[in-house]
Design goal:
The chain has 18 helices and 27 strands. The chain is of the alpha/beta class and 544 residues long. The protein has three domains: 179 residues, Alpha-D-Glucose-1,6-Bisphosphate, Chain A, domain 3; 223 residues, Alpha-D-Glucose-1,6-Bisphosphate, subunit A, domain 3 (Alpha-D-Glucose-1,6-Bisphosphate, Chain A, domain 3), CATH 3.40.120; 134 residues, TATA-Binding Protein (2-Layer Sandwich). A seven-stranded mixed β-sheet has the order 2-6-5-3-4-9-8, with helices on both faces. The protein has a seven-stranded antiparallel β-sheet with strand order 20-21-24-25-26-19-27. Strand 3, helix 3 and strand 4 form a beta-alpha-beta unit. The longest helix is centred in the C-terminal third of the chain and has 15 residues. It is globular and about 70 Å long. The relative contact order is 0.11. Bound molecules: alpha-D-glucose-1-phosphate-6-vanadate and cobalt (II) ion (CO). Cobalt (II) ion binds next to loops.
Length: 544
């Protein structure tokens, strides 16, 4: 027999979801009532789960399996009809988005802190995605947050653990628990979008690739798709077995944390193509032989060349990029005569545009790229689109990028992160900047003159919602730009992100060192924001 317990609780402060759900130290999530309070707040915030069907899965990090057992017992106690769970508790973020859509569910719970490290002393996270498969909108997030502040009780079924390893159906109280293969539906979707025979022929012809799964969730997906379905040789996928602490690494696919892959790609006899994905499989890093492709450039190139893939052969409805992402995609959109939207950071802002059919491709400077096939960014998808383009054109990554820059110009781009800054100091920096925006236009910093200075706010063109305080942007008369923004995904202190961009249109200047090409903007950024004087830092912690 099973019974439902109603457990008295008190609101726990600080359960405010950030850019992508709630992220905290794993030990915080493991405190008595913490996870339970948040799960009940999600259920209450979405109007209850009675009779509903939910997808549940995560990136396999420490506490993933225990948290899923709690979620299942609570879903059952709250009257949910069914939970569809990835075998072993595993689902990449894009695969979860796909399952929500394919099975027509009422949404899903995804357990991940994405690129943040995993382990008992690292980070954990939980987010709710809606019936469209995308991250909860601002409105739903606000409701969930409001519930966390007033919650007094949660409901928990008294029951044994579900068996997450056994494919098929079991019951928990009156709720069905359906364990599904985490990879097969997703792999089928990928096969429907891309020219698999052409990519298969590319590999058969000796084309070499290394995909670094960074000990995170994409390992099983990449092995099935690249090695089994597309015939890439065994060993193409590196670090392909998910581990609870990601092999003690930092599953963030950028030249810092995926340095071994980048080094391999820069070697003289390196592979033709390299890629990496993050903790929950929604991001991608693209590297060609001897060339690192910035995510902003990758988005622009994919927009320009997408029609090589069967799914996009009819052309793109439009493109969207987050505000800090470089303007490279804008010029492609202009040439194609399609709309280009600029949204705040975070995938939730793309959902409405995708649902309304206004855009087909979306991307962020942080290595997130995706399309209307799901409502999340999708790492393996981006790699497959690149492979499809490489197969169709027969060109190398370096040649494709070179052609692109000659046609559209090059946006030199870099992000400088100052991590674990005291929150007061970070806020003081932003407040001071905000206070002087009005006086900046016309001022010169070295060779650069400020043209525009404002704080980005977004009016959603589909539902009319307004999002303020989305980053400070300063544009220069030569087309360069610097953006200042505080991260919304960290778990300790504040991270100041400084996004730097310089536009180059001289064909002879397309192969400079990015940090050198950006040096006037870097100097201007410090002069304008007083990074050193506010934080005491003389150099960023991470440069990507
Ligand atoms: C970061 C990135 C942002 C991304 C978010 C979630 O947010 O900058 O572009 O959407 O992470 O990605 P922030 O607020 O720290 O800058 V993931 O792969 O962590 O779900
Ligand atoms: Co992620």
């Amino acid at each position: 027999m099973t019974s439902v317990n109603v457990i008295q609780t008190q609101p726990i402060d600080g359960q405010k979801p950030g850019t992508s759900g709630l992220r905290k130290k794993t030990r915080t999530f493991m405190e008595p009532h913490f996870l339970e309070n948040y799960v009940q707040s999600i259920f209450d915030g979405i109007g209850g789960v009675a009779g509903k069907v939910l997808v549940v899965g995560g990136d396999g990090r420490y506490f993933n399996d225990r948290a899923i057992q709690v979620i299942l017992r609570m879903a059952a106690a709250n009257g949910a009809a069914r939970c569809i769970v990835g075998q072993g508790g595993i689902l990449s973020t894009p695969a979860a988005s796909n399952l929500i859509r394919k099975r027509g569910t009422d949404g899903g719970l995804i357990l991940s802190a994405s690129h943040n490290p995993g382990g008992i002393d690292a980070d954990f996270g939980l987010k709710y995605n809606g019936p469209n498969g995308g991250p909860a909108s601002e409105g739903v997030t606000d409701k969930i947050f409001a519930r966390t502040k007033e919650i007094t009780e949660y409901r928990m079924l008294e029951a044994h653990d579900a068996d997450l390893s056994a494919l098929g159906e079991q019951t928990l109280g009156a709720m069905a628990v359906e364990i599904v293969d985490p990879v097969s539906d997703y792999a089928e979707l990928m096969e429907s979008l891309f020219d698999f025979p052409a990519i298969k022929a590319l590999f058969a012809g000796g084309f070499t690739m290394r995909f670094d799964a960074m000990h995170a969730v994409t390992g099983p997906y990449a092995t099935e798709i690249f090695e089994r379905r597309l015939g890439a040789p065994a060993g193409t996928v590196l670090n392909g077995v998910p581990s609870p602490d990601f092999g003690q690494g930092h599953p963030d696919p950028n030249p810092i944390w995926a340095k071994p892959l980048v080094d391999m790609m820069m070697a003289k006899d390196g592979p033709d193509f390299g890629a990496a994905s993050d903790g929950d499989g929604d991001r991608n890093m693209i590297v060609g032989k001897g060339i690192y492709v910035t995510p902003s450039d990758s988005l622009a190139l994919l927009c320009a060349q997408a029609t090589h893939a069967p799914a996009y052969a009819g052309g793109l409805a439009g493109v969207a990029r987050s505000m800090p992402t470089s303007g490279a995609a804008d010029r492609v959109a202009e040439k194609l005569g399609i709309a280009c939207y600029e949204t705040p950071t975070g995938w939730k802002f793309f959902g409405n545009l995708l649902d309304a059919g206004r855009v087909t491709l979306c991307g962020e400077e942080s290595a997130g790229t995706g399309s209307d096939h799901v409502r999340e960014k999708d790492g393996v998808w981006a790699v497959l689109l690149w492979l499809n383009i490489l197969a169709a054109t027969g060109k190398s990554v370096a040649a494709l990028m070179d052609d692109h820059w000659q046609t559209y110009g090059r946006n030199y781009y870099s992000r400088h992160d100052y991590e674990d800054v005291e929150a007061e100091k970070a806020n003081a920096l932003v407040d001071a900047l905000r206070g002087k925006l009005g006086e900046l236009p016309g001022q010169s910093f070295g060779p650069l003159t400020v043209a525009t200075a404002d704080e980005f706010a977004y009016d959603d063109p589909v539902d009319g919602s307004h999002s303020a305080g989305q980053g400070i942007r300063i544009g220069f008369t030569d087309g360069g730009r610097v953006v200042f923004r505080l991260s919304g995904t960290g778990t300790v202190g504040a991270t100041i992100r400084v996004y730097l961009e310089a536009l180059e249109t001289d064909p002879a200047q397309m192969h400079r060192d990015p940090q050198e090409a950006l040096s006037p903007i870097i100097a201007a950024a410090d002069a304008i924001a007083g990074i050193t004087s506010h934080t005491g830092r003389t150099a960023p912690d991470v440069i990507t």
